[in-house]
């Protein structure tokens, strides 16, 4: 084990662990690097946390918080690196993915995560970061891209899945008005793919997505090819354009209830 020669033993061991681990340190990282038992490794992590060198961000998961004394890289101040460690299988989506793919200029304070883990609370505060959570079945984790954040791989919904997820649940996109704006921006992107939207919506299996998508598509010339496929996938019953809003007006051609202020795909 090649420890830093000029560092005290405890700090040299921590430096070795940080060099060998990813952005998030687990008990197994300490055990493997220092040839310790899991019990000994857990005690070492607890001790380093008490000394202020590490911050606990989840069960058995830690990140460095003060590394000036080490001859290693500085702590990564990027909360995305925590997603895999805390919520895997998971992906970043909704409004956070929309921001990542430049579908919006809005900046949101939280990080929105879809996770196949049980979700007991819709939000989680850890490491000074707020995560908003939504449960998704593991078989519905599709349409994602892998992005690298320092040494960590993080899954993010691709632009097409991002749009479909926000139409499935407008609240995760910041409300239907913002979702409509993201959709308009998506249509201007060279990577837009209307067929992919339909494929993803089919796979997700929520009929309300087609009603919302078709309704919005009527407002954009570039989205015209979406209208007929959406009509062909009608389901029974009425859906709301945004379940969080009062939607007294029925648009019969889409079996969709909308707020009074909406006369077409976007507000007037």
Q: Which helices and strands, and how do they pair?
A:
Elements: H1 9-20, E1 25-26, H2 27-34, H3 38-50, E2 54-58, E3 61-64, H4 81-87, E4 90-92, H5 94-100, E5 111-115, E6 123-126, E7 129-135, E8 144-149, E9 152-157, H6 159-168, H7 176-187, H8 194-204, H9 207-217, H10 227-231, E10 239-240, E11 249-251, E12 256-258
Helix pairs in contact: 1-2, 2-3, 5-6, 6-7, 6-8
Can you tag this structure with a few keywords?
2 domains, disordered N terminus, Arc Repressor Mutant, subunit A, 12 strands, four-stranded mixed sheet, three-stranded antiparallel sheet
Architecture overview:
The chain is elongated. A hairpin with a 2-residue loop joins β2 (54-58) and β3. By secondary structure, it is of the alpha+beta class. The chain contains 10 helices and 12 strands.
Q: How do the SSEs run, as a string of H and E?
A: HEHHEEHEHEEEEEHHHHHEEE
Q: Output the structural class.
A: alpha+beta
Number of domains: 2
Quick one: how many beta strands? 12
Mean pLDDT: 85
How much beta, percentage-wise?
15-25%
Low-pLDDT stretches are: 1-8, 67-76
Question: What is the global morphology?
Answer: elongated
Number of helices: 10
Q: What is the helical fraction, as a range of percent?
A: 25-40%
State the end-to-end CA separation.
Answer: 67 Å
| Sheet with the most strands: spatial strand order | 4-5-7-6
Quaternary assembly: single chain
Rg from Cα: 23 Å
How would you characterize the largest beta sheet?
Answer: 4 strands, mixed
